[in-house]
Amino acid sequence: MRLNRLASFIAVAALSIAPSLVASADTASPTEQTTSIPQPARTAPAPATTPSDDASRYAARERHDATAAKFRGGGVEVIIGGSALAVALVVVLLLVLL
Q1: What is the rounded average pLDDT for all residues in the chain?
Q2: CA–CA gap between residue 43 and residue 65 (Å, rounded)
């Protein structure tokens, strides 16, 4: 039993030290590495849209697509994401197994 604990300790220690050993094995010297700092792109800020611009764009879309003019909001939708589905699956599995 004592040998099993020693082997487990050695395995955990080796796995915890390995990433630092790999990171320190960089072959390039510090003088060979470039240390350039990227400069942010200098662009003009986007012009702010006014509500009248939005209204004219929406009106143009409605003229272009007849189904957009018929759309009425307020529908109720239930969206179940992957995380919620995974949690529900785990709960069902726990209920079945226990």
Answers
A1: 75
A2: 34
What is the torsional sign of CA 46, 47, 50, 52? negative
Torsion, Cα 41 43 45 49, to 10 degrees, reads -110
3-class DSSP state of 43: coil
Listed in sequence order, the residues at least 6 apart from 50 whose beta carbon sits closer than 8 Å to its beta carbon are none
Task: List, in sequence order, the alpha helices (H) in the chain.
Answer: 2-23, 51-64, 66-70, 82-97
Cβ 68 vs Cβ 62: under 8 Å: yes
- How far apart CA 55 and CA 60 sit, in angstroms, is 9
pLDDT tens digits for 7-19?
Answer: 777 877 777 776 6
Contacts of 61 (CB under 8 A, 6+ apart): 68
